[in-house]
Amino acid sequence: MRSTRERIVDAAAQVMRDQGLARATTKEIARTAGCSEALLYKHFRAKEDLFLAVLQERVPGGLPRLLAGLADEAGRDTVVGTLERVAHAAITFYDESFPMAASIFSELRLLEGYRAAMRERGAGPQTVNAGLAAYLRAEQALGRVRPEADPEAVAALLLGACLQHAFLRHFSDVEAPAEAAGRLARNLAAGL
Fold it and tell me: How distant is the alpha carbon of residue 164 from its chain centre?
């Protein structure tokens, strides 16, 4: 049996996918979860916390979890293999989360509110880049990435390409995530 919190996160994911983050209300999320708004707020202090829970727990790809501990994996797999795994997770994650999150850019006040909330919680898209850059620095320390490579730039290039792939996929038919992830990672790793 699912807990109340799990029902709320499931409902938030559904409502955010269907309506986008800007139009998703806690009232609608609570209704979809079969609970009151008061009960929702016993588990989550704000809609931003619900959004983070959806990204971390319900969006496929597991990108935030993968990158959080990736630097500790330096030296285990090949750099190319790790970058392919990251690219595949990123494309999957962005493909699912982009439609939810895109609506926050439609209202400046809403965007500013989410920026402030993410800063307060130590979250946001910059943490993904930082996680990948930390891994690349760890690989540099092991001599498996060239010393002149810029880990921040490489992280931005790979993750930016994955985000663009997901963005474009919503408008046209582009290659499947697995093929794109492998190609992106291999081409980028060749320069490392």
Answer: 13
Q: If you ran DSSP here, which 8-state letter would residue 73 be given?
A: G
Domain residue limits at 132: 60-192
pLDDT tens for 24-60 read: 999 999 999 999 999 999 999 988 899 889 988 888 7
73 and 20 together in one domain: no
pTM confidence score:
0.83
DSSP 27-66: HHHHHHHTS-HHHHHHH-SSHHHHHHHHHHHTSTT-HHHH
The CATH number assigned to the domain holding 30 equals: 1.10.10.60
3-state secondary structure 113-172: HHHHHHHHHCCCHHHHHHHHHHHHHHHHHCCCCCCCCCHHHHHHHHHHHHHHHHHHHCCC
Give, rounded to a whole angstrom, the gap between the first and last alpha carbons of the chain: 48
152 shares its domain with 121:
yes
Give the number of domains in the chain: 2
Question: Averaged over 10-23, what is the pLDDT?
Answer: 93
**What pLDDT, on the 0 to 100 scale, is given for residue 178?**
60
Residue at token pair 């965007």: 111
Who contacts 55 (Cβ-Cβ below 8 Å, separation ≥6)? Answer: 64, 93, 97
For residues 104 and 189, membership in a common domain is answered with: yes
The interaxial angle of helices 4-19 and 79-101, nearest 10 deg, is 80
